[in-house]
Amino acid sequence: MQLILLVCLAAAAANAAPQFGQFYRPDGRHIAILSQGMEGPDGARFRYHYRTENGINVEAQGTPGSKGQSNINGGFSFPFPDGTTAQFTYVADENGYRPQSPHIPTPHPLPAHAIEQIRFAESQRNRFG
Fold first, then answer.
1. Burial of 31 (0-12, 13-18, 19+ CB in 10 A)
2. Which of 2, 101, 122, 125 is such that its CA lies 20 to 30 A from the CA of 36?
3. DSSP state letters, the chain
4. Higher local confidence (pLDDT), 61 or 67
5. What is the pLDDT of residues 2-39, one digit of tens each?
6. Is the CB of residue 83 less than 8 Å from the CB of residue 107?
7. What does residue 125 show for φ and ψ, rounded to 5 degrees?
Protein backbone atom coordinates (compact mmCIF):
# COMPACT_ATOMS: atom_id res chain seq x y z
CA MET A 1 0.00 0.00 0.00
CA GLN A 2 2.84 2.41 0.87
CA LEU A 3 4.54 1.64 -2.45
CA ILE A 4 1.36 2.51 -4.37
CA LEU A 5 1.00 5.75 -2.43
CA LEU A 6 4.66 6.62 -3.08
CA VAL A 7 4.31 5.94 -6.83
CA CYS A 8 1.15 8.07 -6.99
CA LEU A 9 2.84 10.95 -5.17
CA ALA A 10 5.91 10.74 -7.43
CA ALA A 11 3.70 10.77 -10.55
CA ALA A 12 1.74 13.77 -9.27
CA ALA A 13 4.94 15.66 -8.44
CA ALA A 14 6.45 14.95 -11.86
CA ASN A 15 3.28 16.15 -13.57
CA ALA A 16 3.13 19.32 -11.46
CA ALA A 17 6.80 20.21 -12.00
CA PRO A 18 7.45 23.21 -14.25
CA GLN A 19 8.09 22.30 -17.86
CA PHE A 20 11.06 24.52 -18.68
CA GLY A 21 11.38 25.60 -22.28
CA GLN A 22 7.70 25.04 -23.02
CA PHE A 23 5.19 27.85 -23.37
CA TYR A 24 1.44 27.61 -23.75
CA ARG A 25 -1.33 29.93 -24.90
CA PRO A 26 -4.29 30.53 -22.59
CA ASP A 27 -6.26 28.01 -24.67
CA GLY A 28 -3.59 25.36 -23.92
CA ARG A 29 -1.96 25.27 -27.37
CA HIS A 30 1.82 25.05 -27.45
CA ILE A 31 3.87 28.15 -28.41
CA ALA A 32 6.94 27.20 -30.44
CA ILE A 33 10.38 28.50 -29.53
CA LEU A 34 11.91 29.69 -32.80
CA SER A 35 15.43 30.24 -31.50
CA GLN A 36 17.25 30.00 -28.21
CA GLY A 37 20.78 29.95 -26.94
CA MET A 38 22.72 29.94 -23.72
CA GLU A 39 26.35 30.38 -22.76
CA GLY A 40 27.55 29.65 -19.25
CA PRO A 41 27.19 30.17 -16.48
CA ASP A 42 30.89 30.64 -15.91
CA GLY A 43 31.02 32.22 -12.46
CA ALA A 44 29.06 35.44 -12.79
CA ARG A 45 29.26 35.39 -16.61
CA PHE A 46 26.39 34.11 -18.70
CA ARG A 47 24.37 34.95 -21.77
CA TYR A 48 20.99 33.71 -22.98
CA HIS A 49 18.30 34.57 -25.48
CA TYR A 50 15.12 33.12 -26.92
CA ARG A 51 12.44 34.06 -29.43
CA THR A 52 8.96 32.55 -29.63
CA GLU A 53 6.48 32.26 -32.49
CA ASN A 54 4.09 34.70 -30.80
CA GLY A 55 6.64 37.52 -30.86
CA ILE A 56 8.27 37.31 -27.43
CA ASN A 57 12.01 38.09 -27.46
CA VAL A 58 14.24 37.87 -24.39
CA GLU A 59 17.96 38.35 -23.94
CA ALA A 60 20.30 38.90 -21.01
CA GLN A 61 24.00 38.97 -20.29
CA GLY A 62 25.69 38.67 -16.90
CA THR A 63 29.11 40.01 -16.02
CA PRO A 64 30.98 40.03 -12.70
CA GLY A 65 30.04 42.84 -10.33
CA SER A 66 32.11 44.58 -7.69
CA LYS A 67 31.32 41.92 -5.06
CA GLY A 68 31.34 38.87 -7.33
CA GLN A 69 27.63 39.00 -8.16
CA SER A 70 26.24 38.91 -11.69
CA ASN A 71 25.50 42.36 -13.05
CA ILE A 72 22.85 41.82 -15.68
CA ASN A 73 22.05 43.81 -18.81
CA GLY A 74 19.03 42.58 -20.65
CA GLY A 75 15.87 43.27 -22.48
CA PHE A 76 12.61 41.78 -23.62
CA SER A 77 9.80 42.61 -25.98
CA PHE A 78 6.35 41.28 -26.72
CA PRO A 79 3.46 42.23 -28.97
CA PHE A 80 0.36 44.02 -27.73
CA PRO A 81 -3.02 42.86 -29.06
CA ASP A 82 -3.16 45.96 -31.31
CA GLY A 83 0.02 44.81 -33.09
CA THR A 84 2.44 47.31 -31.54
CA THR A 85 5.47 46.01 -29.67
CA ALA A 86 6.38 46.70 -26.07
CA GLN A 87 10.13 46.93 -25.56
CA PHE A 88 11.96 46.98 -22.24
CA THR A 89 15.65 47.11 -21.35
CA TYR A 90 17.10 46.80 -17.89
CA VAL A 91 20.22 46.78 -15.78
CA ALA A 92 20.38 44.83 -12.53
CA ASP A 93 23.51 45.45 -10.48
CA GLU A 94 24.66 46.70 -7.10
CA ASN A 95 22.47 49.77 -7.65
CA GLY A 96 19.30 47.71 -8.05
CA TYR A 97 16.99 46.80 -10.92
CA ARG A 98 16.51 49.68 -13.36
CA PRO A 99 14.11 49.04 -16.23
CA GLN A 100 13.63 51.48 -19.09
CA SER A 101 10.71 51.66 -21.49
CA PRO A 102 8.23 54.19 -22.77
CA HIS A 103 5.59 51.76 -21.46
CA ILE A 104 6.55 52.21 -17.79
CA PRO A 105 4.12 54.64 -16.13
CA THR A 106 5.58 57.84 -14.74
CA PRO A 107 4.02 60.22 -12.21
CA HIS A 108 2.58 63.55 -13.29
CA PRO A 109 4.88 66.52 -12.66
CA LEU A 110 4.27 68.37 -9.41
CA PRO A 111 2.61 71.79 -9.63
CA ALA A 112 4.78 74.81 -8.86
CA HIS A 113 3.15 75.49 -5.46
CA ALA A 114 3.90 71.91 -4.31
CA ILE A 115 7.53 72.24 -5.37
CA GLU A 116 7.76 75.50 -3.41
CA GLN A 117 6.28 73.83 -0.30
CA ILE A 118 8.82 71.01 -0.54
CA ARG A 119 11.66 73.50 -0.94
CA PHE A 120 10.42 75.47 2.08
CA ALA A 121 10.11 72.32 4.22
CA GLU A 122 13.66 71.27 3.28
CA SER A 123 15.01 74.72 4.20
CA GLN A 124 13.22 74.53 7.59
CA ARG A 125 14.57 71.02 8.21
CA ASN A 126 18.12 72.19 7.41
CA ARG A 127 17.71 75.29 9.58
CA PHE A 128 16.21 73.60 12.66
CA GLY A 129 17.60 70.11 12.28
1. middle
2. 101
3. -HHHHHHHHHHHHHHHS--TT-EE-TTS-EE-EEEEEEEEEETTEEEEEEEETTS-EEEEEEEE-TTSPEEEEEEEEEE-TTS-EEEEEEEEETTEEEEE-TTS--PPPPPHHHHHHHHHHHHHHHHH-
4. 61
5. 545 445 445 555 554 444 456 677 788 888 899 999 99
6. no
7. -60, -45
